[in-house]
Amino acid sequence: MGVEWNLLKATEQDRAALAEIIATHKRLRPLLHHGVVVRLDHPDPNVMAHGVVADDGSSAVFACTRLSSGPSLHTAPLRLLGLDPSRFYDIRILPLGQDVSDVGARRQPAWRAQGLQMSGRQLSSLGFSVPVLLPETSVLLELTARD
Fold this sequence. Notes:
The chain is α+β, with helices and mostly antiparallel strands. The chain has 2 helices and 6 strands; from the N terminus they run αβββββαβ.
């Protein structure tokens, strides 16, 4: 994975967080290597969003990144494409070594800690609010179809 870090100097907590990140990558590897890459247009030029959707629409992972400061740190609703419009998806933030409930700025979406459920149709047409992102930070979202 190209971890450029002297792990001999890392704390036990940092090593545990890294282990969690590596385990998540291994779990998602089949999707990341074999799914369909989706590039999303976002109305804010300071925000980049992209993802990978399973061929059968059963799962997806999307990243939303705030590249730099803009007029507001609040991000316009994120609309996800490439999902099955007739299916419902559970959406959760991948914590990647941190507690999702207490990371970041105030005024976070209420769904942040518990997750969110929306249809593929709602996700592509309405979208949803992502957590407030500071410049040069990202949120990684995992979607799983409800069957």
